[in-house]
Fold:
Amino acid sequence: MATLGIIGAGMIGSQLARLAVKNGDQVVISNSRGPATLSALVAELGPKACAATPAEAGAAGDIVVVTVPLKAYRTIPVEPLAGKIVIDTNNYYPQRDGHIPELDNESTTTAELLQRHLPTSKVVKAFNHIYAAALTVEGQPAGSKNRRALVIAGDDEKAKATVGALIDKFGFDVVDAGPLPEGWRIQRDTPGYGPRRTAKELRGDLAAAKRYAEMKT
Structure:
């Protein structure tokens, strides 16, 4: 049994909390508005879950999920996450996040921005290309025919293996896209972003992905 610290209680954060509890893990979940605003969700999740501040969720988690609007990534507490595996679910939407030049010119990725903000954490990109509602209904036991797959990317192999094991426990196969910069291959508007894919199909999607600059030509 592990403890999943979740910073961000929107659609993805809430669904990951449900999955974790369903699979026997503890959850400490937080948002920007305070623990009291999460009372209904915690009541639904039951005794394996509690609400906290982002710093407390980060400190409590064996694995920490950062699932906030990208524009808020600099608000993530640094010290409580030092040395920990951090799952980044974020996507860049300029209409919501404002324009971020480094992402507009594709010189970096969302996960690399978070890694820069959390220099001693082990950031792994995951859960950013699946609709939230699908998380709790599309998981299947390992070995199931046409099991859905999810992508991970990261620079630390042990961290990726740990996140991969979590994804497998949650009911999905895992496709490793490689180091953190390769996370762009599953960003919005790429072939694998959104639709249900098996591992084989998803590998094809990653190979077919194009940069935004290429899409415009």
User: Anything to note?
Assistant: The chain has one domain: 3-215. The mean pLDDT is 97.
